[in-house]
Amino acid sequence: MASSLAPVLITGASQRIGLHCAERLLDDGYPVIVSYRSERPGVQLLRDKGAMAIQADFSSQESVMTFIAQLKDITDRLRAIVHNASEWLAETQGDEGDVFMRMFNVHMLAPYLINLHCAELLRRSTTADIIHIGDDVTRKGSSKHIAYCASKAGMDNLTLSFAARYAPDIKVNGIAPAMLMFKPDDDAAYRTNTLAKSALGIEPGPDVIYQSLRYLMDNPYVTGTTLTVNGGRHVK
Ligand SMILES: NC(=O)C1=CN([C@@H]2O[C@H](COP(=O)(O)OP(=O)(O)OC[C@H]3O[C@@H](n4cnc5c(N)ncnc54)[C@H](OP(=O)(O)O)[C@@H]3O)[C@@H](O)[C@H]2O)C=CC1
Ligand SMILES: Nc1nc2c(c(=O)[nH]1)N=C([C@H](O)[C@@H](O)CO)CN2
């Protein structure tokens, strides 16, 4: 039976945090639309659970606008947009200019264009949210991920501007995580060093982001806010 709820869009949901949040939303009865860049097992898993999936690489204005057109072909309303798509690139991972543009495109240009061109879809939902997934590292900067950090700081600022522009129809907030889940190739020394950076010293896993996302979606009195989900790094 078709749901009366408007779908939630999560970008970059083929793996890890985005995949987990998409699954949780589906399990909680929300229709879900995801974008993915690479076909991974997680995309088919989501399709099998009823999600709609659009392939998109947010690497240029043209590709983002093509995605927006494809999105509007499959829905005329949205309950929420979760800007999760991201790459964690260091300055050593290629030409610096290319790294900067890739960080700016996925973390700022894509959310900016999607927010501007999809507000009409959100306004057709009784309650509507935009959520930017940022990074706690913007508090102090990053010597090894300069362009990444600057573009994530830009996302924090998008939260402020769009919150002002879209109130009261659409709430706009952010979530700023610190380390959530290690990668399989993270060695023991890296894991120990990373865990020591926070007061709580745990690898929390993806559900702390789903809990944060639901808090923002369910709370009618929060907008223009970025939730820090960092295990207390700032008090360590
Ligand atoms: N994991 C952590 O510990 C932390 C995560 N965060 C933030 O939380 C969010 C989720 O983290 P995590 O799940 O680890 O993220 P991932 O590194 O797994 O990236 C999420 C997805 O973004 C997609 N993506 C990357 N570049 C592009 C692009 N140019 N266009 C479209 N999609 C793209 C990837 O697609 P594909 O791989 O399919 O090509 C990937 O599946 C991110 O915004 C991240 O910055 C912040 C702090 C810590
Ligand atoms: N897109 C991504 N962004 C980030 C990731 C990641 O895996 N993908 N990971 C981190 C680290 O966990 C970092 O927080 C460790 O201090 C940051 N951003």
UniProtKB/TrEMBL annotation:
Q: Which GO terms describe its biological process?
A: one-carbon metabolic process
Q: Which UniProt keywords apply?
A: NADP, One-carbon metabolism, Oxidoreductase
Tell me the GO molecular function terms. Answer: dihydrofolate reductase activity
Note whether Methyltransferase occurs among the keywords. no
Write out the catalysed reaction: (6S)-5,6,7,8-tetrahydrofolate + NADP(+) = 7,8-dihydrofolate + NADPH + H(+); 7,8-dihydromonapterin + NADPH + H(+) = 5,6,7,8-tetrahydromonapterin + NADP(+)
Q: Which Pfam families match?
A: adh_short
Protein EC? 1.5.1.3, 1.5.1.50
Q: Which Gene3D superfamilies match?
A: NAD(P)-binding Rossmann-like Domain (3.40.50.720)
Reported function: Catalyzes the reduction of dihydromonapterin to tetrahydromonapterin. Also has lower activity with dihydrofolate.
Q: Which family does it belong to?
A: Belongs to the short-chain dehydrogenases/reductases (SDR) family. FolM subfamily.
Query: What protein does this entry describe?
Result: Dihydromonapterin reductase
